[in-house]
Amino acid sequence: MSWSQSSGWTTSLLEPTPLAIAITLLIAVVTPLLLHFIIYRPTSTTSLPSFLLLGPSNAGKTSLLTLFERGSPAATHTSQHPLIAEVSLPVTTGAVSSNYRSSNDPVSQVHKRFLLVDTPGHGKLRHYALDNLIKPQYLKGIVYVVDAANISPGSSGLKEAAEFLYDVLLTLQNRATAPKSSRTLSEIPVLIAANKLDLFTALPAVPVKKVLEMEITNVRLSRSKGLLDSGIAMNDGSSSDDKGWLGDVGEGSFKFSQLKEANITVAVEGGIVVGNGANITRWWEWIESIL
């Protein structure tokens, strides 16, 4: 194509012909729409922050899931597979990250939504939960639900809750203390949600924390004894052995505060999922503080 032909084609586009007008209108309409789509496109559910619901069977996890999602608990049955629900913070509650955003910023609305993943509590199905901890994409925190009326000292309920919690915390500790890659691992805080506080035999939050720490101490000792009996030394200082020991190395009592060195924070708050006095305000506030 010669220069004169090219110049003529360009000139024809600049003239007020129907074709030039149509192209100009198309550019004027499509360009803003395209920019708006790119900048303000909705965040997909796969990129929403998520929280894991963990805990023994019959602790109230699935009821809590429906309460978070619908505002009222629904009749549930023992879960066989993970359940996922998209949840929004209550209108009166706002994510902490939204404090630094305009109320008209679409991003602030996104940060009020999150995914809640309910995992089966049965011993043979807990691999669903632990798999999510090994590769926790978008995971912001863990809500570990316990039946506060079924964890009295010496009870089988306490032993089951402590053993599962031990595995969860140990997985998080090993994740945090593994050889670091170039990418810094994010903190995954844990909330122990002491449910069913309306029952007469339920323990308040502070005693729940104490009995769990005491029982985890027993779990830690029994498992270390099992390793010793199998011929694996626990006191040679090797890193492979440390992976099986939760908290500070030694024969002292376990405390949740020992996990701060692994950047793991544990909070214990009470609540009621089902009943006329249903109250999960403290749990909402904990989630709000993380989002």
What is the topological layout?
Blueprint: H1 3-14, H2 18-40, E1 50-54, H3 61-70, E2 83-88, H4 106-110, E3 113-118, H5 127-134, E4 139-147, H6 156-177, E5 190-195, H7 205-229, H8 239-242, E6 266-270, H9 281-290
Parallel strand pairs: 1-3, 1-4, 4-5, 5-6
Antiparallel strand pairs: 2-3
* Terminal CA distance: 60 Å
Shape: elongated
The SS-based structural class is alpha/beta
Q: What string gives the helices and strands in order?
A: HHEHEHEHEHEHHEH
Q: Taking all residues together, what is the mean pLDDT? A: 78
Number of continuous helical runs: 9
Question: How much of the residues is beta strand, in percent?
Answer: 5-15%
Helix content bin: 40-55%
Largest sheet: 6 strands, mixed
In total, how many beta strands?
6
Biggest sheet strand line-up: 2-3-1-4-5-6
Unreliable stretches: 233-240
**What is the rounded Rg?**
27 Å
Give a nutshell description of this structure:
The protein is an alpha/beta fold and 291 residues long. It has nine helices and six strands. The protein has a six-stranded mixed β-sheet with strand order 2-3-1-4-5-6, with helices on both faces.
What does this structure look like?
Strands 2-3-1-4-5-6 form a six-stranded mixed beta sheet, with helices on both faces. The chain contains nine helices and six strands. Helix 5 packs parallel to helix 6 and helix 6 crosses helix 7. The protein is an alpha/beta fold. The model is unreliable at 233-240 (pLDDT under 50). The longest helix is centred in the last third of the chain and has 25 residues, at 205-229. Strand 4 (139-147), helix 6 and strand 5 form a beta-alpha-beta unit.
